Amino acid sequence: MALCVAAALTASTVTAPSASARSSQSSLLTGQPADANSSVIDASSVAAAFSSLRSDIHPVALPALVISALMGGLLGYLSFERFAFQGSSRLGSSTVDLDSTFPDPDAPPAEFVSLEHVRDNLYTLTVYSPSMQRNITNDLVLPAGGTDNTTPRPTFYLLGGAGGGGWTGEGGAPDFFRDKLINVVTPRGAIGSQQADWAQEDPKLGLYKWTTYLTKELPPLIDATFHGTGNDAIAGMSMSGGPAMHIATMDDRFKVAGSYSSCPSTTGVLGQAFASSTVRFYGADPANMWGSSADPAWAAHSPILNLEDMRDLKLFAAASRGVPHETDQEVKDSPAPLLVVDEQFNYTCTRYFVDEAREAGLSIDFYEFDEGTHNWGLFRRQLRETWKTIGPALGVE
């Protein structure tokens, strides 16, 4: 995924919007209207950036802190919010059926196929997805007693990154949840998917309807088979963090939603470039997901542009400033310096999202780590810390 960030940063040269487009927007730092004379980086953002520089800050963390501070005002808006069709009469027509990128309200639940005991409290659950027309494998962590435990409990849908993997190995989920009365489910195979319902089948990745799977198909089966209460949480790391928050708005069962080292945006020059790169990295075409880069579907699924939909949720977000930590682990095909850049990009995007969410009056906890690059060593620590939000929201100790 570090390569995806490099691609996103490469796309960071942009043209400022027209004066008419800017005049209708507010400075995200000052709250004042941005007029035709607004600069991409406003003076107050620069002041905030320099005021963040303290002698006790690790040098590696400086880029993340300075860039995050500079994201106040028009620069942040261009990076993570402004959509391609805004301010232009030539762009913005729909190239896909928007309804096809959202779950069918009448979608049937998944069908049970098999349950295999792996070790201790870890199981492999295989179900059939009607929307994707294939079997889906899920990692399932059950509370003490395993399948014999019939106590009603909530479920935590814990999503993996762009590679489609899970939290049961280096993520440490089985150990952490061993003494907690909760089901933990991680679907496998959502490679480069944005956990989305794609408008069209992709020649490389196939038929993707992951949002339908996570809202209409899998939860009813989990509740019926593993004594779920329908009082649930959802969160994701890297590629899946923003999508987890967005998915939570589509089903009232989700009471808390969160992001681990992710970018909760699919719009703006950086947000859209990052989302697109997670798809292209695996040989797929983003147009099969949400249409052309100017299609309104991209805005419809961008968490930063749909904050109002999250008003009834308890939210959390975690990210690191990217200083290497003793728990950091090597990532195949990703040099250590690139993991620093990757995490710092996600930190910048996360901070922007948190600031906007708080400005909108949403309930969000921000877990800001000084140390940790974009790898499982950091994600594992984030999971443990964010339980301070998840547990109380679900009534689980």
Q: In CATH, what is the homologous superfamily?
A: Alpha/Beta hydrolase fold, catalytic domain
Topology order in helix (H) and strand (E) letters:
HHHHHEEEEHEHEHEHHHEHEH
Oligomer: single chain
Shape: globular
Helical residues, percent: 25-40%
Beta-strand level of the residues, as a percent range? Answer: 15-25%
Overall number of structural domains: 1
What do you see in this structure?
Residues 1-38 and 87-91 have low confidence and may be disordered. The chain has a single domain, classed as Rossmann fold. The chain has 397 residues and is α/β, with parallel strands linked by helices. The chain has helices spanning 2-10, 19-23, 43-51, 62-70, 74-80, 173-176, 210-226, 241-248, 268-280, 287-290, 296-300, 336-359, 376-394; strands at 111-119, 122-129, 134-141, 155-159, 183-187, 232-237, 254-260, 314-323, 363-371. The protein has a 9-stranded mixed beta sheet, sandwiched between helices. It is globular. Strand 1 (111-119) and strand 2 (122-129) form a beta hairpin. The longest helix is centred in the last third of the chain and has 24 residues, at 336-359.
Describe, in short, the structure shown:
The protein is α/β, with parallel strands linked by helices and about 400 residues long. About 35% of the residues lie in helices and about 15% in strands. The protein has one domain: Rossmann fold (3-Layer(aba) Sandwich).
Which features characterize this protein?
single chain; 397 residues; alpha/beta; Rossmann fold; 9-stranded mixed β-sheet; 9 strands
Write the layout of secondary structure elements.
Layout: H1 2-10, H2 19-23, H3 43-51, H4 62-70, H5 74-80, E1 111-119, E2 122-129, E3 134-141, E4 155-159, H6 173-176, E5 183-187, H7 210-226, E6 232-237, H8 241-248, E7 254-260, H9 268-280, H10 287-290, H11 296-300, E8 314-323, H12 336-359, E9 363-371, H13 376-394
Parallel strand pairs: 4-5, 4-6, 6-7, 7-8, 8-9
Antiparallel strand pairs: 1-2, 2-3, 3-5
